[in-house]
Design a protein that fits this description.
Blueprint lengths: L2 H19 E11 L4 E4 L1 E5 L2 E5 L5 E5 L3 E14 L20 H11 L3 H11 L20 H6 L8 H18 L2 H10 L1 H7 L6 H14 L1
């Protein structure tokens, strides 16, 4: 038997073992204002805070006031007993030795922001594409919105130096106002969203964004 065929069989067996280990788990549904909901694994109260365990792992904290009610989630979800690491799979890693390292190091040093945190944001925001533009109009490496670019004096948001300088300055401002996870959430969703929800807003986009940046940074 060819080694390639043997490898495919082993991968198939691992996948089957994984599927066999999946079980149905109950969940809870959090209700917020504006008919927004969030499915979580469980919750607990700590004073004026509610701490929820996320279905994908990790926890989030909200002010109790933003949660209108909690009810069982009638739709169960698949919870794997263990996730196998198949050949070829690897956790995302922070890119090293990019052409923008000098600009990143300079801006990070000036504003007292860890260079690797800046790189994690850039990698998540634009994948180091200096001409990147999102459907919402975010521009450049750190995906500056027009209002942010203007406020932090990035006259040409597609110029890497101006963009990184403005983006790091903005990130420094957020770090001065919030703890690290909330600062990252604010970079993605805005400061108002963090204040309105008393934490990371309960939408997959922002939750996944925070997880990815922190994973790359740490």
């Amino acid at each position: 038997m060819h080694c390639c065929s043997l490898r495919k069989i082993l991968l198939l067996l691992l996948a089957l073992m994984f599927l066999a280990s999946v079980r149905q788990a109950s969940a809870e549904l959090l209700f917020f204002a504006g008919d927004r909901t969030m499915s979580v694994k469980s919750h607990r109260f700590e004073g004026d805070q509610i701490v929820v365990s996320l279905r994908g792992g990790g926890e989030m904290t909200f002010d109790r006031a933003v949660v209108i009610r909690i009810a069982p989630d009638e739709v169960a979800y698949d919870e794997p007993a263990a996730v196998p690491v198949l050949a070829g799979q690897a956790a995302p890693r922070l890119l090293q030795n990019t052409i923008y390292d000098a600009l990143i190091q300079q801006a990070a040093a000036i504003h007292g922001v860890p260079a690797n945190l800046v790189k994690a944001v850039i990698q998540t925001e634009s994948a180091y594409q200096s001409l990147a533009r999102s459907p919402k109009g975010a521009m450049g490496l750190m995906q500056l919105m027009p209002k942010t670019a203007k406020e932090y004096q990035a006259k040409n948001p597609y110029d890497p130096r101006a963009n990184i300088e403005a983006g790091v300055t903005y990130l420094r401002t957020l770090l001065d106002r919030f703890e690290l996870p909330l600062a990252i959430a604010a970079y993605n969703a805005g400061e108002d969203a963090v204040r309105r929800f008393g934490g990371i807003r309960p939408f997959a986009e922002t939750q996944d964004y925070v997880k990815k940046v922190l994973s790359l940074y740490r």
